[in-house]
Amino acid sequence: MLNFTLTMQKKPLILVTNDDGITAPGIRTLINIMKTIGDVVVVAPDSPQSGMGHAITVDSTLHCDKVSKNNAEIIEYSCSGTPADCVKLAVHEILDRRPDLCVSGINHGSNSSINVIYSGTMSAAIEAGIEGIPAIGFSLLDYNWDADFSQIEDYIKTIVINLLSSGLPNDVVLNVNFPKLKKENIKGIKVCRQAKGNWVEDFDKRVSPMGKDYYWLSGKFVSSDKGEDTDIWALENGYVSLVPCQFDLTAHHTLQKLNTWKLND
Amino acid sequence: MLNFTLTMQKKPLILVTNDDGITAPGIRTLINIMKTIGDVVVVAPDSPQSGMGHAITVDSTLHCDKVSKNNAEIIEYSCSGTPADCVKLAVHEILDRRPDLCVSGINHGSNSSINVIYSGTMSAAIEAGIEGIPAIGFSLLDYNWDADFSQIEDYIKTIVINLLSSGLPNDVVLNVNFPKLKKENIKGIKVCRQAKGNWVEDFDKRVSPMGKDYYWLSGKFVSSDKGEDTDIWALENGYVSLVPCQFDLTAHHTLQKLNTWKLND
Q: Which residue of A lies nearest to B249 if distances are taken between CA atoms?
């Protein structure tokens, strides 16, 4: 592990957020790890925001309350908005200087493959990235509220210290997923691409007491991507997956083909 | 314009959705254009969903009601969920065959540049793309509910017919934005890349009658991207912008650099 603290003038300011809500065990673990590395400010949703994608609050008001005591070691704010709202509020209203890093998570559940698109955890990291702040989303493949996050603490520290030492390429944030394994069974960290995959929905259709149909979104993740360079492969084979994500969605490789369309005849 | 109808065995099935809600003038225009091209089914949110990004409803139930009469020309469903929910429900519960195309919009307001990330309109198109269905999101740079969509009808038709004739590259959907101009002043359609840009937030902080602080999200879009190949440039110079968007977020160009990190020492 690089000796980061020796080379910095002052401790880095780290913004911590998530999408499971400020009381979730995952964010409590992440806060504890980050306070060994830098000065920590928490701005996180007051309630679970899973599946919120990159939602922002445009048609409603936002509330943000300081929930830490005045003499607390860590300053914490609880916010009524989405994960992306939390980052916007933190950067433009709460913090008195730009954070050196934004970490989001640790999410209770996977954000590998296409899940990155639906992920509130990653939307916070991407929002920070758009603001030009280095950012990482962390997720553990264990939906259990009692998930054992202690197995992955050293890996998180290693990744954060590498980022603070080396910096990230412009307009890129990291999506890190951890397999549900004992520490001794984790083989290491693998830099990956996002596996191709999707959810095959199987809506659970029910009837209300008033006789009205309603649905629960349900489904199964499927991937036909056999590549050994993907996040899915890494996680299934005992590795921590690290995928660099961009928010320029342009499919540059298709521009030439689209220019053959008869758009202006 | 290509003579699409002559080459197809049967009329294409077109799924229409949006994020401004099923009653918005933008979607009513889009429905009227699409019914000249194919068989149309509408599955759209029952209320405005702007800024919902790629949110999906995982912690709550979904309602979906047929709102068209039995003998109506177009079958329409109003859904309690997000734009992405609408597409999932349409494809897996409502339609009896896979649509040949999904169109989303016409959005009242811009989804160019980084707005694509926050856009409910584009999340519907991207959800369809993930399902393997060709898809386009349409947006007009006019937030007015009384915006004049008649100026852009022929352009929408041209783009849809090109897509149905030529097909789209795999895992790509189209983000089409229209300048707020009279038809005679629109110079044509330009294939573009997403301009680099972001919102600089300026939260409007207020105090409630109970003495509690709250915020309205506000802000200004800024772009330092001077490229003449961007959607922002096209729109500012009188063109319709067409950006191919992908949902593999991997920043492939950075994998090599990240592999130099000391992650497994």
A: A245
Tell me if the pTM is above 0.90.
Answer: yes
Six-digit token string for A183? 């520490």
Q: DSSP letters of B218-249?
A: -EEEE-----TTBHHHHHHTTEEEEEEEES--
Q: Which CATH class is domain A4-195+226-258?
A: alpha beta
User: Which residues in B lie closer than 8 A to residue A129 (C-beta atoms)?
Assistant: none
pLDDT in tens, A49-106: 888 888 888 888 999 999 999 888 999 999 999 999 999 999 999 999 999 999 999 9
Best of A177, A250, A260 to disrupt the B interface by mutation (most B CBs within 10 Å)? A250
Which ipTM score applies to this complex?
0.91
A200-235 residue pLDDT tens: 888 899 999 989 889 998 888 999 899 999 999 999
User: A75 and A38 in contact (C-beta within 8 Å)?
Assistant: no
Q: Candidates 3.40.1210.10, 1.20.1600.10, 3.40.50.720, 3.30.450.80; correct CATH number of B4-194+227-258?
A: 3.40.1210.10
